[in-house]
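User: Quick one: structure for sequence A, then sequence B.

Assistant: Sequence A:
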Amino acid sequence: MKRHPRISLRRPEATSLNRINAFNKADVKVFYDNLKDIQNKHHIQPDKIFNVDETSISTVQKNSKILAERGEKQVGKATSAERGSTTTVVCAISAAGQYIPPFFIFKRKRMNALLLKGSNPNMVASVSDSGWINDSLFIDWLQHFISYAKPSLTNQVLLILDNHESHISLGAYNLCRDNGIIMLTLPPHTSHKLQPLDLTFFGPLKSAYYQECENYMSDRLGKPITQYEIVELFTNAFNRCSNLEKAASGFKSAGIYPYRPVDIDTIQPYCSQNTSFQITRTQTQNSAINNQVSDNQIANDSIVEVATIEQQAPVLQNLVPDPQNLISQDCSEQVSLSDIVELPVMSPKIYKRNIRKKKSIILTSTPIKDRLEEKENKKRQRESKDTEKKSKKQAETKRRKREDENRKETRKVRKNLKNIGDFGHLEEKYKKTEKEKNKNDEYFCIFCNEKYNNSETWIMCHVCKNWAHELCTDQQSTSTGYKCDLCRT
């Protein structure tokens, strides 16, 4: 490390294989070409260029480093729980430094006004079953965005976002087209390099939020952080981090505004990057060292094995160059890492299914509408099929439940008959089929004993539940209903 001051020991950032494969020359070039076409056509100013993205905050914070006694093996600090609940926050910034008020999404069934305790007056919130954003919630956020960005058909707004499925829907397309919003998507899995919010804002924001959580836990011993406190803690962190420099720096780092695309020629897969380093020695030193090595080899062939270490020391000192002299010399050549060792080459991923590869697109362009309508139709057909399957499953469940009840009733009757005795004719009487149960029972008039028919008016006694012709009765009824002569006595 002392011989090479340009080299330092670093902890690498975890980068998934999807991000490594997606961040390539072709996909990045498509994004910048789309951005250039939009700028050439609409000439959008920096105060109308926005970037939106979601981030998650938890009720369990990541503790920062603390001072502890040297040699202590375990150093602990209190957190709210082992695993906290996650809340999604939708943030948007412009290249001119404007911040759209955050939009919170809680993992709940019903919204409670106390969840926004301690927030700024312009912050809003909603709920979802999973705590993540979906199609309908993104449309709600777009309406919230329109109220602050003030887009119109004559003064259009460019909205840069990722390729998440919740952002791509027919409802969002129609709303953006009607209000003058141009949506441009980033290439998949490239937000760590091309998304302004990820580059300069979310990192400091998360650190400030965790610091607020630590201060809360220190001031209120034994009180955990719940969903009712995270908005207030997040608001304090948001107000401290939201400044013009971070927003402008994010768009500048991504090459969006000012328009300076990433140097595409330098983009290479992470596992096959050719790391070059400098050898600080001149050609004269190279030849001298080579001559010394060859002379030393000849001397070693003829030297006697009993030579002492003191006799070999001057030869070794002349052979090994001084590191300080090497560092002080000017750089004369560069050696690539691939010239020294054989680097692994990533083989292309082979898919078993024909998966349509995603890329950067202008979501509000006309060709996308047909694709979105097709997607919406497929979604409706899938929902109708799911509803039909669910209804069939419910009907089958009811049928099986009815069969089980009939089976239990039959077993109960047989058991009772066996307890009474062997009465075969009674057992046959209780074996009624489903059709016989559905038939109407026969009724007779309690006065004239005539069989029931539909041509005459009948009345039932509310006490004994027997039927009679209305003409056969005295047609006298009480407040509770008709009461026959037999029940009056």
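Sequence B:
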Amino acid sequence: MSRFCNVLGILTKPNYPLGKTSRTLRKRLLNPTNAFSFESGRNVSIESTPRFSLIKGNGPRNQVLGSPRNKELFILDKKYMSSVPTQYIDLDGGRKIAYKLTVGDLRKPTVVYVPGLLNTMEETKAVALHTFCEKTQLTLVRFDFEGIGESPGSIEKVNFGQWIDDLRHVVKEICQTPVIYVAFSMGGWISTKIAIEIPEKLHSILYVAPGFNFLQYYYGIFYEKLPPEQKKALDDGACIYFNDLFMRKDFATESVKHHINLKEKIPIAAPIRILHGMLDKDAPYKVSLDLLPMFESSDVDIYLRKSGKHFMTEPSDLAIMISLLDELVQKYPLKK
């Protein structure tokens, strides 16, 4: 494992020894007790006194009643932020999304990092991937979903289908070689949709704490915790920030159209690796165990970390993620 730690670079700085919690490398703002689960309904834990911020209707951010907390779940030390310039893809209807491209060897697959809910292309795992890909001549594409990070748009107006479309444009317009999706949490759901839709661009998938089909489910759970006036606001189209997540009735309802059918085999035959922490309260690791037999692919491995949590950003977590990515690249070279 030391080889991959050295390749990462940021993990072996004097102030960031392997195995020691890097408190200044990132700051987690999501309270681990405010967890959501998925359709299985396992291990749901809701704080008894939740915090709310209300957006009136679909109005501008200056109409917020009470400031929502920072939506970026990880704040990196600035000296470890990547210096890759931001570019933009123009989408239909005047929309656009921000991305960063690390150009590598076109004889190798392209790595696409697909972030989780409200995460950005500068969160810890994304920057670790940048460091590794830059040193190993792998092309890497990172991006922000519409309304998140550097991508224009409003979280009060965007729908889940548009986020799927964001990844569709990234794969079709930027990726010149088959794609390895490194997909975190909700990014696993979106990556699976595009991998099925564009199989000719698929190399393999590395899931990190994947979560499928959960938005309507957690909306229903959190909705029941709200006082009557907040429920009415949601019913009338408001956006509410709930413990670092956001709630919109139309966003949750629209996401159901994009559910992955888990009653049938998932039609992906490519190599798949799953990395999950056994202390994950947001997406219990048993979700990944249930997914394991669902893929058509026979080349599916799961790696469980006994001490791992949802965001998998400890140095040892990152080292394993990078080692799994390296395995996929080395074991499955592109055909000449």
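The chain has two domains: 2-20+87-213+266-331, 31-69+214-258. Confidence is low (pLDDT under 50) at residues 1-80.

User: Thanks, that's what I needed.
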